[in-house]
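Check this:
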Amino acid sequence: MCGMWIAAFLCSPLYFLIRKKWGAFVINSILYLMGWMTIWIFGVGLIFWFIGIAHAIWDLNIKVARTLMEEQAELIAKKMKEKQE
């Protein structure tokens, strides 16, 4: 999981490529390329880079939260089953 955080922060298109989210990959790649092409214009590229990173980290946080909720639901179901037996 740590590798996903690093990929999301350093190279956000790579994060979406690993997760096989093709639409997000294309959008994020465009943002990433625009960021690199406009970095020399008074740092405008940093804005595009930041938007791409925010997009990847937002998606990763949703994935982590969903996984935690599923684990919690499984534990609750297991405890309820134990009480019924």
